[in-house]
Amino acid sequence: PEVCVVGLGYIGLPTAAIIARSGCRVLGVDVSEHVVNTIAEGRIHIEEVDLDGLVQGVVSRGMLRTSLTVEPSDVFVIAVPTPFDDNHAPDISYVLQAASSIAAVIKLGDCIILESTSPVGTTEEMRDLIAKLRPDLKVPGISADIPDIAIAYCPERVLPGRILEELTNNDRSIGGITPRCARKALTFYRRFVRGECITTDARSAEMTKLVENAYRDVNIAFANELSIVADRMGLDVWEVIRLANRHPRVNILQPGPGVGGHCIAVDPWFIIHGAPDDTPLIRTARWVNDGKIGHVLSKAGDMIEANPTARVACLGLAFKANIDDFRESPANKVALALAQKYGERIAIVEPYAQALPPAYDGLGASLIDVDDAIESCDMFIVLVDHDVFKSIPLAERVSKIVYDTRGIWSDQPAHPERPAGHLRLA
Ligand code: SAJ
């Protein structure tokens, strides 16, 4: 089939490239001229392992083209953003815009698939819009006859940094507006997915995606709450978690400076918004994880003020280990707030940054490398568990005052100037 992928971001572009590699002619559509032109030249506008070579290959073989506008195809895949507004209400306007541009070109036998993370009911809302715009077509779930088109919701669940591998190997939920729609979408995904494809209805598939990320948020909140309790009790939370996880049915996640990224801190709000009176746990988890940033800031501030001559290195800005994405990052929020308060005393170590983000302009903080930090800084605040930080040998940090929010240095001895709660038991 010919395939049109609408939205060429972190999900849409790798998806378009993998579909093209499976032998379909793919048209990638995006609203950004820069994105459309970059990909048309066989280059990419995002960082993702092995994506550059794959895109270059499928573009040069003519299997992937790009355009600013949707064209007739057999299958349409929508992968546009679904942000939330200031009140955490989901904004599905990009999905509806994509659906209306697709409605203008669809024909009998086409299949429309929504992949964007969406509040429950979005696929039906999209279906209703298409029915309204195309009264000439029999639309699934509305017309009693065999429908002319298929509509399905098939969420992605890939991890940034492992997108290509996970796009191919992860299991997928395939949610049809009707069972017939699900079967149609299933035939399409089987072309390029090696994982198991499990069919369901569209609403269940929408909820499944939200639940996966809310599950992780709630579990990280548990770990973050434990880390605050452990601080208060003078315990090493990493030691406690390590020991508790030896229980065959306990698997506690890792505390950190908060939860970042574009999914886990966002998607739970889509569930809360859909059932505001029935989601105290999910809402509280959001509150705990957002609050962890404040806890880290105040503890770091106390340590910096207790050591007025210390030069401070903040290790990491990224939202998680070994990636170069500094947006929606608790590490960046902590480092920026410290830079705003302590200016020149703050050095940032971030091997994935060429320069500090513009928000740091004029604050006096500097970007330095690991060796400089070891040489010139007295205090290390670990905010990201990048491999390059993990591998700093004990000898090079033994004399530092350390606040390790990620627990990467289990061999770090207690320091007389560090607050209680960091005595290592192992
Ligand atoms: N984090 C912790 N402690 C942990 C694990 C994570 O503090 O034990 C933090 C990370 O440092 C980061 C945030 O949580 O700030 C999110 O990181 P992540 O690696 O858990 O997830 P993402 O945002 O990169 O990707 C998630 C994944 N969802 C799940 O694992 C349930 C991915 O599979 C989804 O496809 C993706 O969201 C998405 O697009 O929805």
UniProtKB/TrEMBL annotation:
Keywords: NAD, Oxidoreductase. Residues 313-411 form the UDP-glucose/GDP-mannose dehydrogenase C-terminal domain. Signal peptide: none annotated. Pfam families: UDPG_MGDP_dh, UDPG_MGDP_dh_C, UDPG_MGDP_dh_N. It comes from the Bacteria. Belongs to the UDP-glucose/GDP-mannose dehydrogenase family. PANTHER family: UDP-N-ACETYL-D-MANNOSAMINE DEHYDROGENASE. This is UDP-N-acetyl-D-mannosamine dehydrogenase. The lineage of its organism: Bacteria, Pseudomonadati, Pseudomonadota, Alphaproteobacteria, Sphingomonadales.
